[in-house]
Amino acid sequence: MLRVAEGIGRSVVRGAEEVGFAGALFVESLLWAVFGPARRQPVRLPAVVTQMMQIGVGALPIATVLAATIGLMLAIQSLYSLSLFGAESFATVGIALAVVREFAPLIVAILIAGRSGSALAARFSTMMINQEVDALKVMGISPVRFLVAPSLIAMMIMVPALTMWAMLVALTAGGLFVTASLQLSMAAYFADVIAILSVNDLMHGLGKSVLFAALVALVSAVNGALADGGAEGVGQRTTRAVVQSIAAIIMVDMIFAFIVTSG
Amino acid sequence: MAVAAQAAPPPTTESADAPVIRVEGLQAHYGATQVLHDVDLTVAPGEIMVIMGGSGSGKSTLLRHLVGLTRPTEGGIELLGLDITRAGAMEMLGLRRRIGVAFQGGALFSSMSVLENIMLPLREHTRLDRKTMEIMARLKLEVVNLAGADALMPAQLSGGMLKRAAVARAIVMDPKLLFFDEPSAGLDPVVSSALDDLILKLREAMNMSIVVVTHELESAFKIADRITVLDQGRILMVDDVAGIRRSDNARIQNLLNRRSDDSEVDARAYLQRLTGEAS
Known about the structure:
The complex is a heterodimer. Chain A is an all-alpha fold. Chain A has one domain (44-262). Chain A has helices spanning 2-35, 45-55, 60-83, 91-129, 132-138, 143-182, 186-196, 199-225, 230-262. In chain A, helix 1 (2-35) packs across helix 6 (143-182) and helix 6 crosses helix 7 (186-196). The longest helix of chain A is centred in the middle third of the chain and has 40 residues, at 143-182. By secondary structure, chain B is of the alpha/beta class. Chain B has a domain at 17-98 and 177-183 and 205-279: Rossmann fold, CATH 3.40.50. Chain B has helices spanning 59-66, 89-96, 114-125, 130-143, 159-171, 189-206, 217-223, 241-246, 250-256, 267-275, and strands spanning 21-30, 33-43, 48-52, 74-79, 82-83, 99-102, 177-181, 209-214, 226-231, 234-239. In chain B, helix 3 packs parallel to helix 5 and helix 4 crosses helix 5. Chain B starts with 20 loop residues before the first strand and ends with a helix. Residues 1-11 of chain B have low confidence and may be disordered.
């Protein structure tokens, strides 16, 4: 019993340390981004662009497929459940709000956690184990400025951009099914969508996506920085980063929704 | 960690014949285990100091402390006149531009070509234009006999080439002090000997002080001005090659003659280890 309590206590302390470390990485990355250029130690733009290409442009095809599937799935389910009450005409409301406020940010964040978060964690872990991070330190180059900040900035730009794209694709795909089922025109469907959605709905979705982007980048960086034990260590840290990122995304999503809607 | 500014050379107490490294009473711990005990060490300008010892003797830990990657529990470390245990971020940045480190596995960035790896310190710490940086990097590649390898990626290099490229990166800022971590590890005798020659050539050509951590006896005897022998985190002896060879210390003789220095077996302790029972 004592051992169980000790184990729980240690896990809590370790978890708190990792959260603190992630916070420190976030603040230090922002400081480098803001004050680095004035001190002739900027966060290099080519590194940010390279990361943006890998995180955003590289994920475009799969994000498109997933968003279209989610849009279609929502349309099918909405029409089925609303048909039980003879309220199919309200399907557009459900699809528009669900896609923009919830599904587009969530599906893109989970995709990015699996695709780019794992790649970042594996890269950082390998660099730790191969002493590349030590090499940066002894050369007087901050690993946070050189490695973490470009990934964080790229993530915080590209995840909202991908989310906007996913919103558009999901709404279009859902619209194709709804218009075919209800004998509507796409113009009428999109007029409904625009009438239903407010700027607040859009900001709700995009605000969450920025938060999710920072979470994925920081969880990956923390796991990479704590890697040890060779190839097995890289694998364990990569898996841990993806699992923690997805868990954090879902929990933060719930907390965000609760705070914003109860205000 | 604070955002560090582009540093001017740090204020130091350096003079021409002052030691480039001065370590006093260094103690280090990993958790509750003490790994370095009261280590004192000095390295003179232009000297090649080899730090030797068996596995687990603390030589890699000592190197990590010397290059400022780990903070000591207690004691002082002065590099080029700067006390690195008390130095601020700006002073450390200035110091780091005057030292070079060649890591055991090379630690080249796998996503960059050899030339980009070598240019990295120049790119980060100078305002030179790209063409000048390329010329300087290629000059260093010539020094380490790797001319023509500039476009290769680290994954395309052999073990010996990887170490040479790492040396080229370590010397690109013309450091006063150069550290090598196990330069001969994993290399065949011919390549290893060529790397020893390179270390001697660097000292001659660039007038730098060099610290080499190794467990290769042949290499140590070939390049060292003085050798520090570490054992279980303590310095056993510091002397020149002849002095080390003459030593009658049993542990040093075991190291030189590649003999295991297991002391007589404590039967009770052995049994307790096997059964997992605490004493």
